[in-house]
Amino acid sequence: MTERCSSLALAYVSVASNIEPERHVEMAMGLLMHSVQVTAVSTFYRTEPIGRPEQDEYVNGVFEIQTDLPAGEITPAVLHPIETQSGRIRSQDKFAPRTLDLDLILYNDLEISSPSLTLPHADIKRTFVLGPVLELLARDTHSHICKQSMLDMLPSQQMPESIGKPMSTFSGRLKTKLCRE
User: Fold this and answer.
1) Which of 98, 139, 173, 180 is flagged as catalytic?
2) Is residue 93 part of a domain?
3) In this structure, is residue 140 part of a structural domain?
4) What is the pTM of this model?
5) DSSP state at residue 122
6) Looking at the domain assignment, is residue 98 inside a domain?
7) Does the annotation mark 4 as catalytic?
8) Which of these is catalytic: 46, 103, 109, 126?
9) How many domains does the chain have?
10) Catalytic annotation, pick one of 101, 109, 152, 173
C-alpha cells in the first residue's frame, strides 16, 4: 500500500445495468452523491452482454469520485447498499441480468489483493471500463498527484478502438445533472 495522495481519495467506480439501465444509472448517481463527491461522469456506452448473448445490451460507464472513506469501506458501505436499493438480486450466475452493478475500480494509487478487495479491479481490463477510466483520467480540470501513478497501473494507456455505442444524449444528461448538484 502507498500513502494517501491527499486528504480526499480520488477513485473510479464502474457502473453497469441492463434492466431499465438509464433509470438505474441515474438513480445510482443521485444516491452516490449522498455519500461521496461525484466529480465527473464518463461517456456511457451500450455494450453487448458477456456470457449471455441473449440478454439485453448493457449500459456501461464510470463515475469519478472523491471521498474520505477508506478503500475497504466504499463497496460494503456505499456501493452494495445502492445496488440493493435498485432491486439487484445477487445470484451464483455472474452473467445474470442486473439492475445495477457498481465496482470500485481504482482508489488513489493503491494496489491491494485481498479476499474482500482487489485494486485495481480485475474489470479494468475490459474495454467498457478501461475506456471510460482513461477518458476521465485524461481530463485536466483539476490536478491530482495520483493521476500519473494511477495511469501507470492500467493495463494500457491507449484508448480502446471500440468500446460500444456511445450514448451521447444520456451521458450529457448525467453531466448536466452533476453540474446542477
Assistant:
1) 98
2) yes
3) yes
4) 0.87
5) G
6) yes
7) no
8) 103
9) 1
10) 101
Q: Which amino acid is located at 108 in the chain?
A: N
CATH number at residue 154: 3.30.70.560
- Say how far apart CA 66 and CA 126 lie, in whole Å: 23
Instruction: Decide if 63 contacts 181 (C-beta within 8 A).
Output: no
Cell of 76: 460494503
**Alpha carbon separation from 113 to 72, 117, 122 (Å, rounded):** 11, 6, 10
Which residue among the candidates 88, 90, 123, 140 is catalytic per the annotation? Answer: 88
Q: Is residue 145 part of a domain?
A: yes
User: Catalytic annotation on 52?
Assistant: no
Catalytic status, residue 139:
no
Q: Domain range holding 70?
A: 9-180
Pull the grid cell for residue 36: 461521496
Per residue of the chain (181 residues), give pLDDT as tens: 444 455 889 999 999 999 999 999 999 999 999 999 999 999 999 998 887 878 899 999 999 999 999 999 999 999 999 999 998 988 888 888 899 999 999 998 888 999 989 998 988 888 899 899 989 988 755 555 556 666 666 666 666 677 889 999 999 999 999 888 7
